[in-house]
Design brief:
There is one protein chain. The chain is α+β, with helices and mostly antiparallel strands. It folds into two domains: about 5-175, no CATH class; about 195-330, no CATH class. It has helices at about 5-20, 25-35, 50-55, 65-80, 85-105, 130-145, 150-190, 255-260, 320-330; strands at about 200-205, 210-215, 220-230, 240, 265-270, 275-280, 285, 285-290, 290-295, 305-310. The strands form three sheets. It has a four-stranded antiparallel β-sheet with strand order 1-2-3-4. A hairpin with a 5-residue loop joins strand 9 (about 290-295) and strand 10. One of its GO terms (molecular function) is hydrolase activity. This is Metal-dependent hydrolase. Keywords: Hydrolase, Membrane, Transmembrane, Transmembrane helix.
Length: about 350
């Protein structure tokens, strides 16, 4: 999830545990802890692809974060001993905030290495990486705590933090239930339309859990579709899109890493003498978030693989949000390409 959401989640968890002892400092520490795992973005792994696929790595590992929680809690307790903030309570806050960060990340489409150093990317794809309906309650609850002026008011305000956590968790459950409903509908459509079903993704479109994007992979093409909970008809219109292929005999290590990260939901195309590899999962069909230049043609027209793949400057069409909203409401005349 985005940094604002993670900070809000961390602050809300800290406020819920602190109860009447909650104050601005507690919320600030919770927010800082909530964003701590994302500090790995400052690391440079050498190229654009490696920086992408190695994000959410060791700092998001469920195998390492418990030890980090112990060290941070022990250090804080030694520096600031307190009758209320015992080691166990500090550890509870630290562990709860740190461990929920990667668990929430794993519910998005961007893969999280929950078991680092063991290989594997985990993603449940039941919530978009930014979703206001999830985030807003987590922002409101700490604000209510900050506005409280007495101990009793702060104690009551802490209940808002607890309530916000329950509400946000229920929203995640809702997202998963909606995803499963759409998945069943997708499976029925694939059988009815005789489309392949070995490699299928169902994931939310930006900022909501009502309209879902569907990708169905084939050998030389893939199929793109949109399905809304407000659709009047069960039929899903799938648009075939050329997938392309890697034109060279040898594959660089970075491409193998990108394949593992994306579970091979990749497409290939040539544009302006550049070989562009796109991760089909993140973004929308004609507004993909992660595209990389892997090779360029030389003067003789031969491909030259770049030693360090570069990020392709994908364009963003903000006007597509209007069409996205129409499709969300059930307007099936809107193409999966949102044009």
């Amino acid at each position: 999830m985005d940094s604002i959401t993670q900070a809000a989640l961390g602050a809300t968890i800290a406020g819920a545990i602190a109860g009447k002892q909650c104050n601005g400092k507690v919320l600030l520490m919770g927010a800082l802890l909530g964003t701590l795992p994302d500090l790995d973005v400052i690391l440079d792994y050498g190229d654009a692809v490696s920086n992408t696929i190695k994000h959410r790595g060791f700092t998001h590992s469920l195998l390492l974060l418990p030890f980090l929680s112990l060290m941070l809690a022990w250090g804080f307790h030694r520096l600031r001993p307190s009758t209320f903030w015992t080691f166990k309570r500090v550890l509870l806050v630290t562990f709860s905030v740190l461990i929920t960060h990667p668990l929430l990340d794993a519910m998005t489409t961007y893969g999280t290495q929950l078991l680092w150093p063991f290989h594997g990317y985990f993603e449940l794809r039941n919530i978009f990486i930014i979703d206001p309906l999830y985030t807003v309650p987590l922002l409101i609850a700490p604000l209510i705590v900050l506005l409280a002026r007495t101990t009793i008011a702060r104690q009551r305000a802490a209940y808002w933090c607890q309530g916000a956590l329950v509400l946000s968790t229920l929203y995640l459950v809702w997202g998963y239930a909606a995803q499963q409903y759409i998945t069943q509908r997708v499976e029925q459509n694939l059988r009815a339309q005789a489309l392949p079903h070995q490699q299928v993704l169902v994931m939310p479109t930006p900022f909501n859990t009502v309209l879902w994007r569907v990708i169905v992979m084939d050998k030389d093409q893939y199929w793109e579709g949109l399905a809304s909970l407000f659709d009047q008809e069960a039929n899903i219109d799938f648009l075939p899109i050329p997938r392309g292929e890697w034109p060279l005999k040898n594959q660089p290590k970075t491409l193998s890493g990108l394949k593992a990260f994306s579970h091979d939901f990749l497409s290939y195309r040539e544009e302006d003498n550049q070989l562009i590899v796109s991760d089909l999962r993140l973004g929308m069909a004609n507004n993909l978030s992660f595209e990389f230049i892997f090779a360029e043609r030389d003067k003789e027209g031969n491909w030259q693989v770049l030693p360090r793949p570069k990020r392709y400057p994908s364009q963003r069409d903000l006007g597509s949000l209007d069409r996205l909203w129409l499709r969300l409401k059930g307007d099936d005349s809107i193409s999966p390409l949102l044009n």
